[in-house]
Amino acid sequence: METISVEVMQKMLSNTMPTLVHNRQEYKHSESYYMNKNDIVNGTQTSALQEMIAFNSKDSNALASQKDLLRHADNRSSSNFHQILVDQEAGYIATKDPIIDVGDDDYNTKIKEVLGDDFSLALNQLIVDSSNAGYGWLHYWTDSNNVFHYAVVPPDELFPMYADSLETQLKAVERIYKQLNTNTGDYDTIIEYWDANTCTTFVKNNDGLDYYDMFDIVDNATNDVIGQGHVYEHNWGDVPFIKFSKNIKDKPELQKYKGSIDIYDKVYNGFANDLDDIQQTILILKGYGGESISGLWDMIKKDKAIPIDPTPGGGNDTGVDTLNIEIPTEARNIMLNVSRQKIFDEGQGIDPQKFMDNGALSGKAIKGIYASLELKATTTEKYFRPALAKLIRAIMQNAGIPNYQNRNISQKWTRTAIQDDLEVAQALNNVKDFTSKKALASANPFVEDPDIELENQKDDIVNSDGFGNQQEIDKYSQDK
């Protein structure tokens, strides 16, 4: 068995690390926006107060903080538009499991059992990861009992290597992550190198890399563990990682609308700063007769008055004025609304306010609101379909299903959206005479699993007259 050497792995790591670091930075930046930690909160974007102070301080030796006595508030509240847009699409596509059909009911049942109850959650996570990184990764393997498993891998841990061909054939995967060493209490950097047949593991140390023994070595005769090694033979004949691309360029969704989110944050926080600062009262005293400014507020509280000395020469230039902040409310409201609209237009999402502002919408109007989201979801589905098919073929390979490589795999992805169920039911009723019962059950908005629904209908026929009516069952089966 040929394994990759430490020297080759070190050289490969030095060549791939710059790209991996760049991809990780992009992913972490998008993830911070997804967690509602935008640039304005992280300090990488100047606030409205900072920009105003910097502007007022130009060409002056005075301290910036002294240039504008009215401005003190520095609010930094970020908006979670990115999380709303990403979760909208994930919920729209992945709330329900795609219906998989490989042309055999028994095989379909076996595949559904392997995917398990949490497959929609894994698919949801892949959509979130691909939105933040441009792609998501899924790893599959079998345990010692040949039970098939799969899990989503953080996209910033992987670097794929492809064959030198026009087809994007995955040749190897380099995975880098940190793992707590329970012996030292420190975190070790682990590097895994996966190819079509084996996985070789390394650990980073002060001198570079060294092999890392983490796999059990089992005696085939006794089935006992006799040691640990750094090479694992998976023998899939393919790299057991699947890439779920978000778009043709594998680019994060945030790049489409980040500028509009930053503008919204800056205008919104500038507005909040003005509301905070407007509560401060600045008095302009002309002819003040007191001895010190420090005792002014005590005098106002006690005497309810401010002493004013007459202007020498009998002038009228005495009194008390207030200095106020002027807030351009209308202009800011317009800018906030325009920025908000641009965010949802550029992100191809649905502004929740559209449903709040329209209490009763027809089915056609609802479809119109979902049009932009549907276009984005269709593109995502197009890139996810080949990846999901690859996962299904791996499941069939492990289950020993014949002709797994060439078997046709049908996928039906169900959207989860606000809809007029009455209109859908009326449409199904109009086409029931020339549509199969399975198609009707699949399209019925009140049915979650069409196969269970068909079985329930068959039971209804059997139990309708209290006897087993085989003639009706045969007729029902023929109608399907």
Automatic annotation (TrEMBL):
Organism for this UniProt entry: Apilactobacillus timberlakei
This protein's name: Phage portal protein
Superkingdom of source: Bacteria
Region (Disordered): 446-480
Alphabetized InterPro entries for the sequence: Portal_protein_SPP1_Gp6-like
